[in-house]
Specification:
Number of helices: 4
Strand content: under 5%
Order of helices and strands: HHHH
Shape: elongated
Structural class: mainly alpha
Distance between the termini: 44 Å
Helix content: over 70%
Length: 97
C-alpha cells in the first residue's frame, strides 16, 4: 500500500502543480515565502541571541545546537527558490522569451 501524504504535503504539491499552469500563482507564493523567510530569519537571530544571554547552562547547551534555529529560515528559503524558479520557467515558456 502507498503512503498517505499529509495535508501540508498535498497543499504544497497542489500549489507547485498550479504554478506549472499559472506563473502568477507561483509569483504570489514566492512573495509570501520570501516574507516568511525574512520573518523566520529575524526570529532565528533573536532567539539565538536571547538564548546566549539567559544563563550559563542554557548558553552552554545552545552554543552546541544553536544552528537548529536556522533550519526554519533555510527551509523557507529552499521553497522560495523552488517556487521562484518554477514561476520564472513557466513565465518564459508562456511568453516564448
Amino acid at each position: 500500500m502507498g503512503k498517505r501524504k499529509s495535508a501540508l504535503d498535498q497543499f504544497i504539491e497542489a500549489l507547485f502543480e498550479l504554478t506549472g499552469y499559472f506563473w502568477q500563482v507561483g509569483a504570489v507564493v514566492t512573495v509570501i515565502l520570501s516574507f516568511l523567510t525574512y520573518k523566520s530569519a529575524v526570529w532565528a537571530f533573536e532567539a539565538n541571541t536571547l538564548a546566549n544571554t539567559d544563563s550559563q547552562v542554557t548558553a552552554a547547551l545552545l552554543n552546541n545546537i544553536g544552528w537548529v534555529y536556522y533550519l526554519f529560515p533555510l527551509t523557507f528559503l529552499i521553497f522560495t527558490i523552488l517556487f521562484g524558479a518554477k514561476s520564472i520557467s513557466v513565465y518564459l515558456r508562456n511568453n516564448r522569451i
